[in-house]
Amino acid sequence: CRYALYVSAEGAPAHAKPMEWLANTLANVDTPGFKRQLAVLQARHAEAIAQGLDAPGSGTINNVGGGVELDGTLTDFSPGTLSNTNNPADLAIKGEGFFVVQTGDSEQRLTRAGNFRLTNEGRLVTQQGYAVLSADSTPIELSAGVPFDVSEDGVIRQGATRIPLALVKPKFLADLVQQGDNLFRSLSETDPVEQGKREVVSGHLELSGVRPTSEMMEMIEASRAFESNVKLIQHQDEMVGQLLTRVLRQA
Length: 251
Description:
251 residues; alpha+beta; 5-stranded antiparallel β-sheet; 3-stranded antiparallel β-sheet; 18 strands; elongated
């Protein structure tokens, strides 16, 4: 009974955390360039094995398993559908790569969200006000009120001015860590996207990668698993209480 209580107590939070991530994912169904997160659950060793007091496959009671545990998340970087907005400040990357922006702490972050805007001073920024960087890692500044366009290889053209956008890619997509505001931080050095592979579509946005139906089904499954573990904890607690009552009566 104590072991079953332990397994259920480990399983409940393992299913509660994915529910939080799924709720956040569903909340970003209309966020341009948003990438969905996938929770990774794995079988958990019994506590004795986890502490190194026994070994897997020992054939003892410790080998029956310890339920499930959360092993982290994976980000689905599948490209989203492109939507036409006819806004020249809206940009979408077709293929690999990320835009580079500079946050308030002067750190560089990556994003696939190209719903940019021009400030009154002509600086190209994200919706949160972070500066969009050029290929030479400087904030992009244009002449306010003057029309501009963006070429297919990601060069902003305004009159005689030519400013190539910074388009980079990490060595491995697994190196990217979500930082909030639809931004990613790379744990490794990034490389510029090769000239022949730079593809930017002006007047378009990459839509969110959220799949509402799939996310809702996963939310229901996680919720049911969480509720099942909680009910098991309550049931096992009642059994322990009844057992103690019987012992005390016989004493």
